[in-house]
Amino acid sequence: MSGLKIALAKGDGIGPEIMDATLDLFKAAGVMDAASGGVEFVPVEMGASVFAKGNSKGMTDEAIAITEDSGILFKGPMETPKGGGGKSINVTARKMWNAYANFRVFRTLPGVETVYSKAGIHLNFSVVRENIEDTYGGVEHRLSNDMIQCKRLISAPGSDEVHRYAFHTAQKLGVKKVHCGHKANIMKMTDGMFLERFKATAKDFPEIETGDVIVDALCMNLVVKPQQYQMIVLPNLQGDIVSDLCAGLVGGLGFAPSANIGKHISIFEAVHGTAPDIAGKGIANPTSLILSGLMMLRHLHMDKTAATIENALLATLESGVHTGDFGKKDKPSVGTKDFVSAIKDRLGQKPTTVPAVDVPETGTKAELKRPAKPTGVQVIRTFKNIVTQVVGCDIYLDSPLSPGALAEEMQRVCEDTPFRLTLISNRGTQVWPTGSVYTECVDYYRVRFELKEGIAPGSIGQSRTVALMDKVAEKFVVCSYELLRLFDGVKGYSLAQGQ
Ligand code: NAI
Questions:
Q1: Which domains does the chain have, with CATH numbers?
Q2: Enclosing H/E stretch for 310
Q3: Do residues 336 and 16 touch, judged by C-beta distance below 8 A?
Q4: Which of 88, 267, 272 to mutate to test the pocket of ligand 1 (most atoms within 8 A of CB)?
């Protein structure tokens, strides 16, 4: 057999059970039918067994090569090793292959009872989560005895890529309104830029209405009136939390599919984990993985095959067939294999109590258009030609001194330099030149130096700030340093709380 090749990793725990069941269904529906242009699944080694051999990536070089060659990875859930050097394969794969957009669909399914379905509220909406940046960069440091830092990185090109994917997908699916979820009222620069790039990207899609909503209000709105949303795009961490909340609205993680979309390589996987408590018992629910597989088939333009399988799945759920984790208790549950057999029996049927999916005339042949493989690492840029000017620096100190004592020392240090001390803050709150006695301080300070009166921005270079840091470091432990610059005349740094 030779069709479009797809890297296949069955995963750990319940992974092999639900993947075998899904492949069994796909085979019956002709997904692997060479004569009609189906796909060929190529097994790759990833997960617990690879970690156990001492490979800290959790995937063999061959698995990496096959995935890169095929452009698609269909994967079961994989265990994240606890402690030791092994990182989550899921996060490694998304980041290594630049799968920048996580797309999840949430909808009311027949036979899956929720408070909303009982109230007659039908849900069908999606979340697009930025998948690479934010605190998921995992850039963390211990800065002092009592302080740990995690850097939150949000880039303009990274934001642009995820917003563009969201609007393109909205266009394709006929979604009329896209919301941006954010916390730009507090994180004015990071979330502020994510929101600003959302608005800038929206200009290229004038037919799509847009809205923005602060993430805490979004969570409340989602619980109170989820049907008001069609698509929500969010930064990584907020998107992670909100998308699990959304899964809860439609019956839990067992019903939420997910696609990790990249320019070159995309990964399709169930949202839930390896369910170690039920692994090997043959009772796991394969719906999330099947739905993720359907997203993959649609990504490959196999719309007819996907619609046929989806209608059979809906007809099965509607008939009351269910695994142990959901469904009416008056009907005995079935195991994974019997659940899939029930779907296979209904291939060609349509649901009657919920709208059936339109089955298009064509779409059994797998097609994947990919840009040419990059010849080297690409540098992506949104803003070029911006004029920057150095105006000072923030120096971060590990110190047990009081703000007043620290200020005296710092003023002495900068006497013969182009800089003056303008601010000391602790945990982001100004504690000098003014502050409140109620502000508690910890052993980690930010000390801000800005140009003395009469020295024009840009008239000195970065080296003078480094020389200042060198002087500070003669007496104090410098944990980190940030350059203060104007970008086309606009401050590239935030003010302290209370400043
Ligand atoms: P989990 O999702 O594996 O399980 C949570 C609960 O949901 C358990 O009671 C489990 O039995 C149930 N459950 C999950 N999927 C089910 C299914 N298909 N059918 C029936 N019941 C199901 O989350 P947990 O226990 O926090 O994580 C277990 C392992 O999975 C960890 O090592 C974690 O790192 C990994 N994980 C992997 C993911 C991935 O590969 N994408 C995603 C989430 C977790």
A1: 1-100+262-383 (3.40.718.10), 101-240 (3.40.718.10), 388-491 (3.30.70.1570)
A2: helix 303-318
A3: no
A4: 272
Q: Tell me the helix, strand and coil percentages in the chain, rounded to 5.
A: 35, 20, 45
**From the CB of residue 113, how many other CB atoms can be counted at a distance below 10 Å?**
14
Residues (pLDDT < 70) of the chain are 1-2, 83-86
In a mutational test of the pocket of ligand 1, which residue from 78, 94, 243, 274 has the highest number of ligand atoms less than 8 Å from its CB? 274
Q: Which residues pair with 127 in a beta bridge?
A: 104, 232
How many other C-beta atoms can be found within 10 angstroms of the C-beta atom of residue 321?
Answer: 20
pTM for this prediction: 0.93
CA distance 399 to 425: 12
Q: Which tens digit of pLDDT belongs to each residue from 408-445? A: 999 999 999 999 999 999 999 999 999 999 999 999 99
Q: Dihedral sign, CA of 88, 89, 91, 92?
A: positive
Q: What does DSSP assign to residue 371?
A: P
**Beta bridge partner(s), residue 46:** 59
Q: Label residue 280 left, alpha or beta by phi (over 0 means left) and psi (-120 to 50 means alpha).
A: left
Report the nearest atom of ligand 1 relative to the CA of 81: 32
Instruction: Look at ligand 1, atom 1, and give the residue with the nearest C-alpha.
Output: 273
Please state, in angstroms and rounded to a whole number, the distance separating the CA atoms of residues 268 and 297: 10
What's the mean per-residue pLDDT of the chain? 94
3-state secondary structure of 46: strand
As a whole number of angstroms, the distance between CA 421 and CA 433 comes to 9
Tell me how far apart the alpha carbons of residues 317 and 300 are, in angstroms, rounded to a whole number: 25
Token pair 């001390």: residue: 421
Where do the H-state alpha helices sit in 434-478?
Answer: 462-473
